[in-house]
Amino acid sequence: MQESHKSKCAPRAGEELCGIQRFWPLDDGAWGYGVACDMGTGTISCRLYSIESDEMLGELSRENPLVRYGETIAERIEAIREGHLDAMTDSLEDALVSMTSDLADKAGVAMSDVTCMVICGNTAMECIMSRINPEDVADPLGGSSAIFGCDVDYIAANTKAITAGEAYLAPCPSLQVGGDIVCGLVAIDILHASEPVLFIDFGAYTEIALGNSRGITACSMGENKNVRDYIIALAEARGIELDDIGPVLVAGDIPDDIPQQLHARMRSVGNAAIEGVSAVLLSGEAEEELCKIVDAFECIEPKL
Question: How many domains is the chain built from?
């Protein structure tokens, strides 16, 4: 790698996770450049990394182009029913290629040297990215959704540049609980926690997980629902009291309706999903941890 591409002051994976990051060991002999992407419901965030040095060379966030089909997942599912799946996938691919090209240009990196991508999102977003109708996927996931958690070849091109490599979409435990929260749990190192950790990925599509080294229970939260009720449901499913919960880590805005006894334990951790997906991009050990987290999952659908 050319020395001009390195920067001693560039952030490393995990440095923006508000003090709870873990540095995963880099893969020996790895080289080139890769993109980590959190494909959120409202915003797509991408980072360009030097695979050799673990340095982040650039970061971009843009509005998800699917917003024009609706701000909620339910609206986008309706758009798929109306025959827009191919157009929706194309728009996500165009956005990812454009963001990758812009990051490479700004960092002085040849687009052809960007040879790997790791992408996470909620299950519906990963399905659309894979040109799969979420309504055609069985729960628990299987069949056509086997693409999640596997390397797939890709070619990306625009008017200025072309590249080819492998893309990895984070595994999704269920239709309701996606690869984004799994990557967030990698970032907060949940499998090495002794006391139960509550993790809330709060946003347009909210997912909540409660667990530690002894297992994880998770769910998604319906629109216009109360966070408190879902936290209580998760605690009951794990057989613990609210007072037994340790840290409460929140990605996104802090919800107003957290149970009172948990307020003092709350911490905002920023975008944990992009930190976790970055770790998976750079480290085989982090990818193994991701798979262990998926295996530890129990997904529930609280009747609230």
Answer: 1
Residue 3 has pLDDT above 60, yes or no: no
Residue 166 in domain: yes
Rg (CA), the chain: 19
Number of helices and strands in the chain (H, E): 7, 12
Contact 66, 56 (CB under 8 A): no
Q: Is residue 70 part of a domain?
A: yes
Q: Cis peptide before 140, with omega less than 30 degrees from 0? A: yes
Binned at pLDDT 50, 70 and 90, residue 203 comes out as confident
Task: Look up the domain containing 142 and give its range.
Answer: 11-175
CA–CA separation, 24 vs 187, rounded Å? 10
Assess contact for 227 and 206: CB atoms under 8 A: yes
Q: What is the pTM of this model?
A: 0.88
CATH code of the domain containing 162: 3.30.420.480
Residue 93 included in any domain: yes
Task: Count CB-CB contacts under 10 A for residue 240.
Answer: 15
Q: Is 48 part of a structural domain of the chain?
A: yes
- Residue 267, beta-bridge partner list: 249
- With beta carbons less than 8 A apart as the criterion, state whether 164 and 153 touch: yes
72-92 pLDDT, tens per residue? Answer: 999 999 999 999 999 999 999
Virtual CA dihedral for 172, 252, 235, 175, nearest 10 degrees? -20
136-191 pLDDT tens trace: 876 666 544 556 777 777 777 666 667 777 889 999 988 889 999 999 999 999 99
Is there a contact between 236 and 252 (Cβ–Cβ < 8 Å)? no
CA distance 176 to 139: 9
Q: Which helix (H) or strand (E) holds 80?
A: helix 73-81
Tokens representing 290 are 């991701």
